[in-house]
Structures are given as structure tokens and as C-alpha cells.
């Protein structure tokens, strides 16, 4: 028996080893996993190139993107746990939630292997070799950036250590955060020139790196480096290496904002020369002639959900959205009330609904024409509201006279939900709408899941999706966008405002985004409707405007968590409770009572992930982030 156990164990270990090799590399003929074989010919080197791509974080995937439910933008059914536990303050240095330390360094290691060996490949044209090298340098920069954004100062792995390295060489230390950003920017500068301006063959190359992507990432990297979390952050003054090297420069540098503004403008110019532009809904064919109201909503929604539309700078082809759309959809067509294929598991809290502007394009607590104190009172929709709210439906006053992005991004009790096979907006009574009270078709109290706050997510759902039966949900898939042109425009306005203060150039790029969203300019909106009409004329006021504009425009796109952190505003926002409506009620007067779902807490230590205890034990030269 002992003999059989030993033989079985050996076989199991052997199978595990060859399976791991095949899964990890899968680049070598005859299952001989050696680096030399990986670079003997172009076809094998291309497999290694795609291996370097394979470590990209899966943006928009609930199990691999902390920015979806790790903050306060979307709340999840409690049973799911995972990143929701991070939002609840349950992060730990023992098995940190969302820990990417190992996976990103594995990706960096493979990028270094590629760069060290690609010159050996004989059957390649030099222009293609240079392109591949640039793609891998970009990926190496991106993986380092993901680590810096999460952990702060990190060890920079510029080259792989040789096998002969001694124990002291292996135990690397963290590099100062300014050195980290400089190295990332250097890699992107090296990568950009040899990258194509556009993808020539989308069917085979969509998702591969282009020059606009590289320069746009550099813009985001430098804006991040210039932001308060990394630029003069005195809270991190005591974070030092064992030899006393300070890892944060605690002195603010305006030059960082100057460099960021220059990088943003360069990226914008290259993107626009490549034909990238803000998306506006204007199909070659449509079944019905739509009103401007619905066209504006579709311009907002389709800028995210229309595959490879004109605004997409970079989308992750490894992170398609079919499953995500099923998780967030909550249509429950009355023909299929027994359906469970759409789940409605992610719900925007009340404070996110309140974040959007009024129809006049200013915050709801600043609009002198909007009844902020009466926002929770009841109001019945009239004919003028019929494309936003079901005519005759009684709902909260909060849902009336809001900006188009509010209606394009959110579903709510009584709200019109354009789509589900109903496209003729000349017949508003035929359009699908949500009913969110207890045991209504989109409410609590039925089999399966539904909203837990009273709000549904609409933005990430393609308007052409259709529920065909209780178990058939036809989804129009699209790769999850990592960066859109509106993101880059707002980064430029932010950097320029911090560098030079308010100016027509700052306003220009915010106003382009607002125009697509159906709003007036910053100057006209604040001058005519705000209780603080000169807010946009000073740097602090414009900063607040730009921040809110980013949070609205990029809502639910995995941006809010990172923006709040780099601005050092998480401690303010993530210490507010998560609220919703009273979902167990059947009447409007009872349903529209505010309930607290969870009291969030966020401390200074939470701005950065803890380094896992296992990594700290293996390398005593690493210092732990403060507070952990």
C-alpha cells in the first residue's frame, strides 16, 4: 500500500507540473518549456507576447476589479462578500482582499524575459520587432502602475535577477514613489514612438496597444503622481526603508502638475489625430425617429456600451461584459415574472443618485431654482416628464428635473428604462419602466435578487439587450473600457487648473464633455443657476467642479475608487453611511423613507493596500504600509 501511495503521489506531482507549465507558458513545441525554444521563431515569440498581455487585470469583472464594489459607488448583496468586505472595512494584511502583488510581479517578470530574448528571433521584420518590444514595455509600465496605485512605493524590477543572485540581491527594497512614477513614465516614453497610431486589423488586433493608449496612460500616470496622495503627502512622512530612505517626498511640487498638463495635451492631440472623438449617437439606420431626449441618453450610454465606438481609447478584450450585464440588469419583464436570468445584484446608493446635477447643470444643493430641502417629498410625473418618468407615477421629488446623465445611468422606481425591445419613444406609455416597491416586478420580495438600495444600474447595460424568456437574456457584449476620451479631457482640465488656475482652456474641455451630456457650459450654468455664481472663477472652486464632473461622467466605470484616493477625499466620502429607500414597503409614502444599509469607515491606513504578511516574512527588507 505504501508503494502505491508513493507512485500515485509522484504521478500527481508530475501531472500538476506539466499542467502548470502548459497553462502558464503554452509557448513551446513538444511541451519542452524552455526560454530558448520560446524565441526560436516568430510564432512562438508571439505566444510569449500574448502571455505578457495575459496578466492584465480584468477590469469590470466582479472578482478582479476592486473599483466596482470596493468603495461606495455600488453596493452588493451581503452574501457575495469579497470586495464588498473591503468596502465594509474588513481589509487585512493576512490575505489582503484584491492582492495583486504576486500576479503583477509575475507579469513584470515575463515582460523582462521577453525583452531580454526577443532580439534572438530570426524570422521577424525589424519594424514588427520594435512594435512588440514597445507593447511589452507598455505592459511592464502598466503593471508597475497598478502596483503603485495600490501599494504606493514598490520595488522596481527593471531586469530579472540572475539565477546566481545571492540572498541579499533577492531581498529587494521599496523604491521612493517619485522614482516609481519616473520609471513608469520613462517606459511609456520609450514605448510610444514604435507603436501604431491605430489598429489596422481590428478583427485580429483589437485590444493591442497603440500610441494613443500609451500617451493617454502616461497622462493618467503623471496626473496621479501630481495628485495629493503622492504629491507632498505629509501623512506618509514616517514610511522609510530599513536604511532610512524616505519613500514619500513630503514637499508639494507644482512642476508635477505642469508636466501632467503637458502630457495630457500631447495625448489629446495624438488621440484626435487618430480619429478618436466624443461619441454621439447617430446610427446609419434606426427603426424609429427618436426625440433629442432619448438620443442624448443613448449618446451617454453607448459611449460605454457600443463596442469600439469613436470615444474608446483603450478597452480590455480580456474583460467582456456579458456576465456583468446579467448581474446588474433588473428588468423583470412582466411577461416573465418567474425569470431569474437577470439579477440586479449591484445597486447605487442614495448618495450617488444625489451626486448628479440638476437639469441646469449644477449640484442639487447649489441650484437656486431646485427645491433641495424638499427632495424626499412625493411628486407625480406629468406629461413633460414622460420620457424620464412614467406619466402619472408617484415617486420622489429627487428624481425630477435632473441632468440627462442621471436618467441615462440610473434606474429607479417609476423611471423609464429605454430598451428591452421597446424603442418607439413617440409612444411613451409603451416604453419599459421600473416598479420598485415590495413585490413589484423590480422590487424586493421575489425569488432571486434585486436592488438593495432602490436604485438600479443602467449605464453599463446595452440598450439593445432583451429578455426573451424566463431563462434567456440576449446580451450585446462589449469589451470593458479602460479609458475614454472624456476621461482624458477631464484629466487635462484638472491638471491645467492645478498648474495655471481657471482659464478658457480649462473650461473648453469640461464643456465639450458637458455638451455631449446635454448640459450648458460651466460659465453659463454657474452664472445663471448657482447660489455660488463665481465658483468657476477661482482655482478651489474650479477644482470642486472638475472633481464632481469626473465622478458623474465616469460613474460606474471603475474610476471613482482611484480618484477619491488620489485626491485624498476617500476619508470624507467613505465615512458616510450607505443609504437607500425602505424596500419592504408597498406604498410610495412608506417606500420613500431613508434607511441606512451600512455605516462605512475609512481611515488613513486604507489609502494603500497592506503588503501580505507572507511577502513580509519572505523579504525582511520590505517595510509595511503605515497602519498595517
- The geometry reads as globular
Low-confidence stretches: 1-32
Query: What is the gyration radius calculated from CA atoms?
Result: 26 Å
Strand order of the largest sheet: 1-3
Structural class: mainly alpha
Helix content: 40-55%
> What number is the mean pLDDT?
91
Task: List its salient traits.
about 625 residues; mainly alpha; two-stranded antiparallel ribbon; two-stranded antiparallel sheet; 24 helices; disordered N terminus; Starch-binding associating with outer membrane; TPR-like_helical_dom_sf; signal; membrane
What is this entry, summarized?
The protein has helices spanning 2-24, 35-38, 42-53, 66-69, 83-87, 101-117, 126-151, 167-170, 177-191, 202-205, 211-226, 254-273, 292-305, 322-328, 350-355, 404-409, 485-500, 504-516, 522-529, 539-553, 560-566, 570-573, 588-591, 613-618, and strands at residues 75-76, 312-320, 346-347, 378-380, 394-396, 410-412, 455-457, 466-469, 472-474, 479-484, 578-581, 594-598. It has 628 residues and is mostly helical.
Amino acid at each position: 500500500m505504501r508503494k502505491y501511495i508513493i507512485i500515485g503521489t509522484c504521478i500527481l506531482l508530475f501531472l500538476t507540473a506539466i499542467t502548470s507549465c502548459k497553462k502558464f507558458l503554452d509557448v513551446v513545441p513538444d511541451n519542452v518549456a524552455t526560454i530558448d525554444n520560446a524565441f526560436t521563431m516568430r510564432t512562438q515569440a508571439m505566444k510569449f507576447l500574448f502571455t505578457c498581455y495575459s496578466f492584465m487585470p480584468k477590469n469590470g469583472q466582479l472578482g478582479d476589479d476592486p473599483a466596482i464594489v470596493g468603495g461606495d459607488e455600488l453596493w452588493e448583496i451581503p452574501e457575495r462578500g469579497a470586495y464588498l468586505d473591503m468596502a465594509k472595512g474588513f481589509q487585512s494584511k493576512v490575505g489582503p482582499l484584491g492582492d495583486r502583488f504576486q500576479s503583477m510581479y509575475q507579469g513584470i517578470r515575463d515582460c523582462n524575459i521577453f525583452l531580454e530574448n526577443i532580439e534572438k528571433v530570426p524570422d521577424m521584420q525589424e519594424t514588427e520587432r520594435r512594435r512588440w518590444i514597445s507593447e511589452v514595455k507598455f505592459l511592464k509600465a502598466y503593471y508597475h502602475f497598478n502596483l503603485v496605485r495600490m501599494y504606493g512605493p514598490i520595488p522596481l524590477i527593471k531586469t530579472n535577477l540572475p539565477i546566481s543572485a545571492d540572498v541579499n540581491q533577492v531581498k529587494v527594497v521599496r523604491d521612493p514613489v517619485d522614482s516609481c512614477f519616473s520609471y513608469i513614465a520613462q517606459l511609456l516614453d520609450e514605448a510610444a514612438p514604435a507603436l501604431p497610431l491605430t489598429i489596422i486589423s481590428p478583427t485580429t488586433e483589437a485590444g493591442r496597444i497603440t500610441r494613443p493608449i500609451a500617451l493617454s496612460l502616461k497622462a493618467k500616470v503623471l496626473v496621479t503622481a501630481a495628485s495629493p496622495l503622492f504629491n507632498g503627502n505629509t501623512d506618509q512622512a514616517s514610511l522609510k526603508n530599513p536604511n532610512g530612505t524616505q519613500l514619500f517626498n513630503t514637499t508639494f511640487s507644482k512642476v508635477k502638475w505642469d508636466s501632467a498638463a503637458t502630457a495630457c495635451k500631447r495625448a489629446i492631440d495624438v488621440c484626435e489625430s487618430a480619429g478618436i472623438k466624443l461619441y454621439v449617437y447617430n446610427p446609419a439606420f434606426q427603426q424609429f425617429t427618436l426625440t433629442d431626449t432619448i438620443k442624448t441618453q443613448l449618446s451617454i450610454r453607448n459611449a460605454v456600451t457600443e463596442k469600439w465606438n469613436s470615444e474608446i481609447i483603450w478597452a480590455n478584450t480580456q474583460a467582456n461584459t456579458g456576465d456583468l450585464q446579467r448581474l446588474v440588469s433588473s428588468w423583470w419583464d412582466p411577461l416573465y415574472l418567474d425569470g431569474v436570468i437577470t439579477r440586479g445584484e449591484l445597486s447605487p446608493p442614495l448618495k450617488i443618485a444625489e451626486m448628479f446635477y440638476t437639469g441646469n447643470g449644477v449640484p442639487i444643493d447649489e441650484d437656486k431654482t431646485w427645491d433641495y430641502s424638499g427632495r424626499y417629498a412625493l411628486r407625480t410625473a406629468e406629461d413633460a416628464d414622460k420620457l424620464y418618468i412614467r406619466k402619472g407615477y408617484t415617486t420622489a421629488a429627487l428624481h425630477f428635473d435632473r441632468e440627462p446623465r442621471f436618467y441615462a445611468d440610473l434606474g429607479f422606481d417609476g423611471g423609464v428604462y429605454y430598451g428591452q425591445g421597446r424603442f418607439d419613444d413617440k409612444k411613451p406609455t409603451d416604453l419599459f419602466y421600473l416598479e420598485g416597491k415590495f413585490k413589484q416586478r423590480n422590487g424586493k420580495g421575489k425569488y432571486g435578487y434585486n436592488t438593495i438600495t432602490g436604485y438600479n444600474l443602467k449605464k453599463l447595460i446595452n440598450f439593445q439587450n432583451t429578455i426573451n424568456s424566463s431563462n434567456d437574456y440576449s446580451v450585446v457584449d462589449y469589451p470593458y473600457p479602460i479609458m475614454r476620451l472624456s476621461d482624458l479631457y477631464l484629466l487635462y482640465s484638472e491638471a491645467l487648473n492645478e498648474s495655471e488656475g481657471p482659464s478658457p482652456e480649462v473650461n473648453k474641455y469640461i464643456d465639450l464633455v458637458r455638451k455631449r451630456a446635454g448640459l450648458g457650459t460651466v460659465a453659463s450654468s454657474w452664472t445663471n443657476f448657482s447660489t455660488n455664481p463665481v465658483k468657476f472663477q477661482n482655482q478651489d472652486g474650479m477644482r470642486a467642479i472638475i472633481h464632481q464632473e469626473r465622478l458623474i461622467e465616469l460613474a460606474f466605470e471603475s474610476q471613482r475608487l482611484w480618484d477619491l484616493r488620489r485626491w485624498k477625499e476617500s476619508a470624507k466620502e467613505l465615512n458616510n453611511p450607505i443609504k437607500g429607500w425602505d424596500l419592504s414597503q408597498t406604498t410610495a409614502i412608506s417606500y420613500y423613507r431613508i434607511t441606512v444599509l451600512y455605516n462605512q469607515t475609512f481611515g488613513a491606513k486604507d489609502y494603500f493596500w497592506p503588503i501580505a504578511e507572507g511577502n513580509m516574512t519572505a523579504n525582511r527588507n520590505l517595510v509595511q504600509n503605515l497602519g498595517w
